[in-house]
Amino acid sequence: MTVGIVRDNISIVLQRPRYPENIGSAARAMCNMGFTRLIVVEPGIWDNARIRRLATHTAGSIVDRIQRFSSLEAALAPFGHVVGTTARLGEQRPVIKSPDFLARGLIPIAHNNPVAILFGPEDRGLTNEDLKHCHQLVNIPTVDFSSLNLAQAVMIICYCLATADQADPKPLTPRLAKRVELDQMYGELTAALMEIGYVNPQNPDYWMVRIRRFFTRLSLRAGEASIVRGICRQIQRYGVRRYTEGLRDGQCDGKPIDEG
Fold it and tell me: Of 65, 87, 200, 253, which has the highest C-beta tally within 10 A?
């Protein structure tokens, strides 16, 4: 049996697009490939007439249903899997260099999980801060000049998703922890690790990068993220209890209090 991507579980997310025309062109590209869910975060200019002019009447229904958000965190909160697109490569940006390979890998994930494909601003692309929300990164290979027009990039990714199939499908991925659940987990984990001195409180993000990558590779389910949060809360409660007992017993930071 051959299976393909579940289109209704795929959303295209545009982070800070600068021009309304690119939003409209992206909507048209989505419509060509049968995708309907478009999210726009902090657009530079919002001009509905200019968006519709490039979307044409064919993609008008997509424009009508665009969801707008003022922050990327809020936009990605309901998604179980987030894919970031990037033209820049490097050690800090391990990427899948084949959109086709990415698309095939998303088939079992998108069956039970909402998936976001994230595109950055036209001039700079996604920042390292934006990429913290991503489970995977994908690069569209080019020759000589790496920068693509936003709508072109959306079209290429949507085409690969629309045409991907698996003749011998992998087991379907169960519901993964949503972005909001992971963000809550990372917040509590960071606090707990600072509490025990594992993470430098002066620059916690630097120390958390590898920990985030570790958990991302595990593709945590909702229940598993809840377990990690529970462990973090117990660590903090234990620390508070031990500190309180130390004060009661006349100790501070493990040393007797000088009564003289």
Answer: 87
Distance between CA atoms of 142 and 220, rounded to whole angstroms?
Answer: 33
Query: For 243-253, what is each residue's pLDDT tens digit?
Result: 787 767 666 55
- Other residues' Cβ atoms within 10 Å of the Cβ of residue 229: 18
Digit-coded pLDDT (tens) for 57-106: 889 999 999 999 999 999 999 999 999 998 876 655 567 778 999 999 99
**Domain count for the chain:** 2
Nearest to 114 by CA among 224, 11, 4: 11
72: containing domain: 3-166
**Residue 4: is it exposed, middle or buried by C-beta count within 10 angstroms (0-12/13-18/19+)?**
middle
Please tell me whether residues 141 and 250 are part of one structural domain. no
Residue 172 included in any domain? no
Partners of residue 10 on adjacent β-strands: 115
How many Cα atoms occupy the beta-carbon half-sphere of 209 within 13 Å?
Answer: 12
Nearest of 75, 81, 88 to residue 16 by alpha carbon: 75
Prediction pTM value: 0.77
- Pair 87, 159 in one domain: yes
